[in-house]
Design a protein that fits this description.
The complex is a heterotrimer of chains A (142), B (137) and C (192).
Chain A lengths: L4 H23 L8 H19 L1 H7 L2 H24 L14 H32 L8
Chain B lengths: L1 H26 L3 H23 L20 H32 L4 H17 L6 H4 L1
Helix pairs in contact in B: 1-2, 2-3
Chain C lengths: L1 H23 L3 H21 L3 H23 L14 H17 L18 H12 L4 H9 L1 H22 L11 H9 L1
Classes of the chains: A mainly alpha (142), B mainly alpha (137), C mainly alpha (192).
Chain lengths: 142, 137, 192
């Protein structure tokens, strides 16, 4: 697969549009179908495509696994953090009304942040799963 | 008559799909096939939920200011949306367990694995080693 | 309306035939490809049932990522499924009986698409009205997912995170260069 020029060039061309589409789905989720879960999977699929065509080592060079692990936890922290912030501002856990100047804008900000956290976690979990499966060593560890 | 049959035809097929998934889980001895069976079962349950949420002549639950329309029930959609992503995560967990079993036993057939366990158990008894608790039951 | 139902019935019957083919096949690669096709037809089905968000997710997750994971795992596993020694009669019989009972019960379920069905009475109208007036987001699914059921989604996110960490813990290679550092830890683990 490493010598197939069609695959290599098509991957290079497709990589950026896939991520762009992922971001569109992420931030347009309020108005059309989409949201954090789908966007996370689409962004992850761009990195998985890169790893499939150029090899797992090149994929790890593009997106190092220690950054992957940090972002994997960060998504959940962002989600929980929005809840904590709304608590510190004097409302209940994950009550977004207080985040903005008006309840409606507060809801908008809260939903955007929460969806971003979901997208971050899902995309990084999917990349981590693929890396773990692809670089699994078959030799017995005894 | 025909319209009422078609009205519950979905349920019948969904139940058949559920049973096929269940059969793959309990009837087949290959672990990978068992996980595929779980996926089939899961997707059929999703279909059942979404079928409940449908309203005749409804539109997808995205608000439209210009046309006054009926929206299908959004609640099952939300539940299933998250369940799909959790489902793939748990499927991956099951697959990783299958991989570990394959490295330890060299096989993913249930019959082979239980035979190997039985041989180990008898070996332990013959050599007088303390038998591991998990095989005693 | 009847045409909508006919399309549904057609698609769901295709799913049944794919599932029957799954029972028949003993080759792992066919199993994986058929599972992917099953997910894709399920996504079509969700579109005809007005669940666009769910269809989106099913097409990208069920037909995309899970197929890739199955293929990646398949590389380490035997390519053929063995014929099992024990009989498959009792599992098949119990499945047929259970399926018969479920189909018999399906006569009590409401017909597809009835507005008077109990599920449409309770909380869904409030969500639809609230999404318009209180939250101001056109996509009702997003507003219910992130706002009304924020706790639920938080839990699901943590479950995805935990599953990812568990897979990493199960599959990660031991690094040979770090062996000396981690030796005391290994000893403790063996004793425990």
């Amino acid at each position: 697969m490493h010598n197939n020029s069609i695959l290599r060039i098509a991957t290079k061309i497709l990589f950026a549009p896939i991520i762009l589409f992922g971001l569109y789905v992420q931030f347009h989720g309020d108005f059309g179908p989409g949201g954090g879960f789908q966007a996370g999977v689409i962004v992850a699929s761009a990195f998985i495509l890169y790893s499939l065509v150029f090899g797992i080592e090149a994929g790890k060079k593009l997106f190092p696994s220690n950054i992957n692990l940090i972002l994997l936890a960060l998504g959940g922290i962002i989600y929980g953090g929005v809840g904590i912030v709304s608590m510190l501002l004097g409302d209940e856990f994950l009550a977004y009304n207080i985040l903005g100047s008006s309840p409606r804008s507060g809801q908008h900000i809260g939903i955007l942040l929460v969806e971003f956290g979901v997208g971050l976690t899902v995309s990084n979990v999917m990349i981590a799963l693929f890396n773990a499966f692809a670089s699994y060593d078959k030799i017995k560890e005894k | 008559m025909i319209s009422s049959t078609i009205g519950i035809w979905n349920y019948w097929i969904v139940f058949c799909l559920m049973m096929i998934g269940l059969f793959l889980v309990i009837g087949r001895k290959n672990f990978l096939k068992k996980i595929v069976g779980l996926t089939i079962f899961q997707t059929s349950v999703f279909l059942l939920y979404i079928t409940f949420g449908k309203i005749k002549g409804g539109t997808p639950p995205i608000l439209n200011e210009t046309i006054d329309s009926i929206y299908s029930n959004p609640l099952p959609h939300v539940l299933i949306l998250t369940a799909i992503v959790v489902g793939v995560a748990t499927t991956a967990l099951g697959l990783s367990l299958v991989l570990r079993i394959n490295t330890e036993y060299g096989s993913i057939e249930e019959d082979d694995i239980s035979a190997q366990d039985l041989v180990d158990y008898h070996d332990d008894i013959e050599t007088g080693k303390s038998v591991d608790l998990k095989f005693k039951q | 309306m009847i045409s909508e139902l006919l399309i549904n019935a057609f698609l769901v019957t295709i799913m049944l035939s794919i599932a029957i083919a799954l029972i028949k096949t003993r080759t792992v690669i066919f199993t994986v490809i058929l599972t992917s096709a099953y997910s894709l037809v399920a996504a079509l089905m969700f579109i005809t049932l007005d669940a666009v968000d769910v269809a989106f997710t099913e097409a990208s997750v069920g037909a995309g990522i899970s197929t890739i994971l199955f293929l990646a795992a398949m590389a380490y596993l035997p390519k053929k499924e063995e014929e099992s020694i024990s009989s498959e009669f009792i599992p098949a019989l119990s499945c047929i009986i259970l399926g018969g009972i479920l189909i018999w019960c399906s006569y009590d379920l409401p017909e597809i698409g009835q507005v008077t069905a109990p599920i449409h009475q309770h909380i869904a109208p409030e969500y639809i009205r609230g999404s318009k007036e209180d939250i101001g987001i056109p996509n009702i699914v997003t507003s219910v997912l992130a706002s009304y059921r924020g706790y639920d989604t938080f839990g699901e996110t943590i479950v995805v995170f935990t599953a990812g960490v568990a897979v990493l813990a199960l599959l990660q290679k031991k690094d040979p260069t770090k062996k000396n550092k981690s030796q005391p830890k290994q000893k403790i683990r063996k004793n425990a």
